[in-house]
Design goal:
The chain has 227 residues and is an alpha/beta fold. The protein contains 6 helices and 7 strands, in the order ααβαββαβββαβα. The chain folds into 2 domains: 34-67, no CATH class; 79-221, SPOUT methyltransferase, trefoil knot domain (Alpha/beta knot). A 7-stranded parallel β-sheet has the order 3-2-1-6-4-7-5, sandwiched between helices. The protein is elongated. This is tRNA/rRNA methyltransferase.
Length: 227
């Protein structure tokens, strides 16, 4: 039987006329552990003592960060995600957060090393992130690991993602918001896939495109849904 979580109530109680105004938002997470502390090296004494307000699922409440990463490593999926970062793309944080949600093996950032971590919502602490200074470095790494590069962009001649059998082991590559995949990356991808769109806009947000493509992999290789 798992540990009993001391959840914070999210019930809204109407204030009386003399009560202070309610807080702007409900406090997330759980408070200090109640009762005898559980045994196990994966538990963090500080979190047990003070509470765990991190953005993690209940399974990992009160766990040390290193223990969470180690547990994730035992069950990460064999696809990688790469995103170009030549102009400080603000979508990278969103891509990292989604990669963590879908348990991608790793995220690869090509170009500038610095990126805006705000959108990652601290999930970068639990996700393996690698930096490649240029396209050639990413290609060399992928070849060394026998992983095909699959580009995601709505380009002339691209193949619909919805009809393409994604390899189980691969690297899904995304360009920056606006310019999309660079010419250098397009040349080295074994395929470039487009996401079906039906409105007036030319393209969807790069972070949204990454989420769609990663979920397509999940549908194919976790739920075994054919294209």
């Amino acid at each position: 039987m798992g540990p009993k979580l001391n959840r914070v109530s999210e019930q809204v109680v109407p204030p009386s006329s003399d009560s202070p105004p309610p807080p702007d938002r409900t406090e997330v997470g759980v408070g200090p552990w109640e009762g005898p502390w559980p045994e196990g090296d994966h538990y963090d004494p500080e979190l047990l003592k003070n509470g765990d307000r991190r953005n993690v699922v209940d399974r990992y409440r009160y766990w040390r960060r290193e223990a969470i990463v180690a547990d994730l490593d035992r069950r990460r999926h064999p696809f990688h995600v790469a995103i170009e970062n030549w102009e400080h793309d603000f979508n990278i944080g969103s891509v990292v957060r989604t990669a963590n949600a879908f348990a991608a093996r790793a995220v690869h950032i090509v170009g500038r090393r610095r990126w805006n971590r705000r959108g990652a919502m601290v999930t970068d602490r639990y996700q393996h992130i690698h930096h490649h200074p240029d396209t050639a470095s990413l290609v060399a790494w992928a070849e060394a690991h026998d992983l095909p590069l699959i580009g995601i962009d709505n380009l002339p001649g691209s193949v619909p993602l919805e009809t393409y059998p994604l390899p189980r082991e691969c690297v899904l590559v995304f360009g920056q918001e606006g310019p999309g995949l660079s010419e250098e990356v397009r040349k080295v991808c074994v395929s470039v896939l487009s996401i079906a769109q039906f409105g007036s806009t030319r393209s969807i947000n790069a972070g949204a495109a990454a989420a769609v493509a990663m979920h397509a992999w999940i549908r194919a290789h976790v739920f075994h849904q054919s294209v």
